[in-house]
Amino acid sequence: MLNNYIKLALKVLGRRKFFTFISLFGISMTLVVLMLATAILDNVFVPRAPESRFDRALTVYSMSMTNAEGTSRRTGQPGYRFLDTHLRNLPGTEDVTIFSSAAPLPMYANGRKIETHLRRTDASYWQILDHTFIEGSPFTKADADEGRFVAVITDDMRDQLFGGAPALGKSIDVDGQRFRVVGVVRSVPITRIAGFSEIWAPIKTVKDPEFLRRNMDGFGGVVLARSEDDFPAMRAEFAARVKALRPEDPRYEVVRTGLDTTFEAVARLFFQDAEGGVRILRIVLTIATLLFITLPTLNLITINLSRIMERASEIGVRKAFGASSRTLVGQFIVENVVLTLIGGIVGFALALIAINALNNLSIIPYARFDVNFRIFAWGMLTAALFGVISGAYPAWRMSRLQAVQALRGGAA
Fold first, then answer.
1. Nearest-angstrom CA–CA distance, 286 and 76
2. What pLDDT is recorded for position 133?
């Protein structure tokens, strides 16, 4: 039965090519935008190199301090002292890394100015994040502990500085300091909060030694858990430690921060509260998606109504020969699902072209977006739901036609 429905659907879609084209265009364009948005979100939030272990990692990227009444707030990034005191030895911890933000800095090479980013890290950074090394290796724990002036750079930075020649052992000048290159890694998208930079150096090469004593400064931290099951205990212990902290500034009494997943960390950056921010961010993304889908769905419903009512005589004949309303509804919904799945395949092909163009434009530095099987599966599921929803009402309208009215071309 289903096989016959599909064959009939393909024949029907070939009858009115203009209506079919308009429907396919609306479906495919809708899915292209949705797949592009999903690919970008996937690139930001789904664990992938160099953050492929972040399915069992919790982060601290932001914090705030308020007075007791909540009328005054100071927000920023945590400092080295705060992270070093509060992230170590949490229950279920496999490893901890503390690092500075990737600060934008100018450097000069071959008589020209180069805009770059420098991040200072500890040695554990290279154990938790899995950067792909093209040359050399990360700096060692001894390098980090002793503050040696060594650095890891990206392949793009190597190409800019040395014209693609091997960089190991060569010196670079950045932030008024000279570093010796010990490793070269593949470039990382700027969407990776912890993984992105273009130059990495040991934390103890920071010029101002006062960073060791600040609770709020330009640092972040990642705790790698042995298992995701350890998250609740880690969060509870961290929250207890933070609650006991008293800010250095007497104007403030309460410190707000938390151990967050990547999605929660982004929500906290926007809304200063991870739990409430996650709800708001999810609601915003859901509403935006629903609003974007609603217009083409309504358009497709209108087209389907016209297409079905044009087939009133066919419906009347089939009803006269005993076809039930349920059979006819099933047929028309299958037809619409077939249409939307074809639109989904076209949309997927167009999304691949659009993503390739987006990658070539380099709008987001070093980002390489892709449409993987997970995104394709969600796209096809969306197309199928799109087909069922946009076909259900027209099919119901069609099922209410009496055989005599249908043969006369009338409506119910």
1. 28
2. 97
Task: Report d(CA 260, CA 271) in Å as an integer.
Answer: 13
Closest CA to 150 of 177, 188, 185, 127: 177
> pLDDT (tens digit, 9 = 90+) per residue, 384-396?
777 777 777 777 7
- Which residue type is seen at 333? I
Q: What is the pTM of this model?
A: 0.79
Rg value, the chain, Cα: 29
Q: What is the dihedral of CA 288, 290, 296, 302, to 10 degrees?
A: -140
Residue type at 276 in one-letter notation? G
Question: The tokens 């020649």 sit on which residue?
Answer: 165
The answer to whether 138 and 97 have CB atoms below 8 angstroms apart is no
The 10s digit of each residue's pLDDT in 197-241 is: 999 999 999 988 888 888 889 999 999 999 999 999 999 999 999
DSSP-derived secondary structure letter, 260 = B
Integer Cα distance of 183 and 289 in angstroms: 43
**Based on the number of CB atoms within 10 Å of its own CB, is 144 exposed (0-12), middle (13-18) or buried (19 or more)?**
buried
CA 279 to mean position of chain CA atoms: 16
For residue 136, give every residue at least 6 positions away whose Cβ sits within 8 Å of its Cβ, in sequence order, or none: 152, 168, 181, 182, 183, 184
Say which residues have a Cβ less than 8 Å from residue 92's Cβ, sequence separation at least 6: 225, 226, 227, 229, 230, 231, 233, 234
C-beta separation of 350 from 32 below 8 A = yes
Question: What pLDDT, in 10s, does the model give residues 364-377?
Answer: 778 777 777 777 77
Q: Which residues pair with 99 in a beta bridge?
A: 121, 220
Lowest model confidence (mean pLDDT) among 18-22, 59-63, 195-199, 353-357: 18-22
More confident residue, 12 or 163: 163
Identity of the residue numbered 194: A
Query: What does the pLDDT read at residue 315?
Result: 67
- What is the H or E stretch that residue 76 is in? strand 73-76
CA dihedral 283, 289, 295, 300 (to 10 degrees): -130
Answer whether 335's CB lies under 8 Å from 315's CB: no
Spatial strand order of the sheet with 63-66 comes to 73-76, 63-66, 254-256
Q: Give the count of alpha carbons within 13 A of 135, CB side only.
A: 21
User: Which residues 6+ apart lie within 8 Å of 11 measured at CB?
Assistant: none
**Per-residue pLDDT, 411:** 47
* Mean pLDDT (the chain, rounded): 83
